[in-house]
From TrEMBL:
This is Uncharacterized protein. The keyword Signal applies. It comes from Solanum tuberosum (Potato). Residues 1-26 form the signal peptide. Keywords: Signal. The gene is LOC102585922. It comes from the Eukaryota.
């Protein structure tokens, strides 16, 4: 929640600061043209920004770990501030069970007056972010560790620090490039198609009518048959687009058909929204699932039914499949899980500049991204 609030003030602040610092320091120090682009009228600045940055720029890069005092102090070079050091101090100012801590960050040698660095700080238990515009010591207060486990983690492993690659404005403009993907409008849908065409070289050809097969007779659908789904609109559409891009797949979502002992057809699906609005793994009667996809799914789903090869169908263990499906029903399934579908080799999973260190925290980061997207749209 803090991220949402922060984000609003962060944008206001950004523009105010840009303007003021321009006035005050404009003649003193050269500013980087990229830093002031957002001040220009949209028609002028957007094409420039679009050519400078891409979606990969919203991916933070790992700079290191700030560990507790007495251990080595972390030192690195940022996008804006060339000399930065950080260390962590543990304390119990909050008189709470696990105590809290202060992350000290000293930034200096800014390359211009108007630039700033945006950082994401993470432990496996939290993720927060901050940005720095002034050369001095900054602190990030953590009032209270969430658990004994988090306290132990920071004692031994410290707090991981990620730098948003393109600096503050690059990050913002990269977000602007990606944000339309999540908009539940025709414009958002076209953005998804445009993104897939541009980054994956996908082609989109309109199918002849009818666009929906008349599936009143489902006798030909068997246990283990696969539903490959591609959503191209709204929240899921946007995430699927990014997922297709990183994984190289053309389906962003999948579901599996299962028949019970009475022959009734079911669909096992992840990312199904329950009554409480949580995304969970669900088993739905075929009729309910199909009806939803035909009439209520606002992500413009493209669904292909892929029957299991007869040889494999002969080997498919329905009992085991049901046992597994029932054990997974109701389990949370959201962006956290989606991220893991990006990972299938030790390295070489991600378009540069993603790296393995980032993956450790990307799960939390995606919750943050989700906040950001919610906040901006
Ligand atoms: C912090 O102080 C409170 C109250 O004085 C105490 O109960 C708690 O154990 C302390 N926590 C740590 C980690 O020292
Ligand atoms: C910092 O030092 C303490 C003890 O001196 C050690 O237990 C801890 O693992 C060290 N942390 C890091 C990140 O090196
Ligand atoms: C689908 O097929 C059934 C039976 O073959 C038929 O009664 C029904 O009208 C068809 N529905 C549509 C929308 O074509
Ligand atoms: C199918 O799965 C069940 C439950 O896991 C198991 O008991 C059974 O032996 C399996 N059948 C075959 C043919 O492998």
């Amino acid at each position: 929640m803090a991220a949402i609030l922060k984000n609003h003030s962060f944008i206001t602040f950004l523009f105010l600061f840009q303007f003021l610092s321009w006035q005050i320091h404009g003649f003193k120090t050269p500013f980087h043209p990229k830093d002031v682009l957002p001040l220009l009228p949209r028609q002028v600045s957007w094409p420039i920004l679009n050519s400078l940055y891409s979606a990969v720029d919203i991916m933070p890069s790992f700079v290191g770990v700030a560990s507790i005092e007495g251990n080595n102090t972390l030192e690195w070079k940022g996008a804006c501030f060339f000399k930065n050091i950080a260390w962590l101090e543990l304390h119990n100012k909050s008189n709470s069970q696990f105590g809290g801590g202060t992350l000290h960050i000293k930034v200096s040698n800014a390359h211009s007056w108007t630039c700033m660095d945006l950082y994401v700080f993470a432990t496996p238990y939290r993720v927060t972010w901050d940005y720095y515009v002034l050369s001095r010591e900054h602190t990030l207060e953590i009032k209270e560790w969430e658990s004994q486990a988090e306290l132990e983690y920071v004692k031994h492993k410290g707090i991981s620090i990620f730098l948003m690659q393109a600096g503050m404005l690059g990050t913002l403009s990269a977000l602007w490039d990606v944000l339309p993907l999540f908009s539940n409008t025709g414009w958002g849908e076209n953005s998804n198609i445009g993104f897939l065409k541009k980054h994956m070289g996908s082609s989109f050809e309109k199918r002849p009518l009818p666009w929906v097969t008349n599936l009143t007779n489902t006798d030909d659908i068997h246990s283990g048959d696969f539903l490959a789904i591609s959503k191209i609109r709204g929240r899921w559409g946007g995430f699927e687009t990014l997922e297709k891009w990183v994984s190289g797949a053309y389906a962003g979502h999948s579901a599996v058909c299962l028949r019970d002992s009475e022959g009734k057809l079911w669909v096992g699906e992840s990312g199904n929204e329950n009554d409480k609005g949580e995304d969970v793994i669900a088993l739905l009667p075929w009729e309910e699932w199909w009806e939803f996809e035909l009439t209520k799914d606002d992500s413009n789903p493209h669904i292909a039914l892929l029957p299991l090869h007869p040889d494999l169908r002969a080997k498919f263990n329905e009992t085991a499949a049901w046992e597994y499906a029932k054990s997974m029903t109701g389990m949370p399934y959201g962006f956290h899980n989606l991220i893991f579908s990006w990972i299938d080799t030790i390295d070489g999973n991600y378009p540069s500049p993603l790296d393995a260190n980032l993956v450790m925290h990307i799960i939390s980061y995606y919750s943050l991204a989700n906040f950001v997207f919610t906040a901006l749209f």
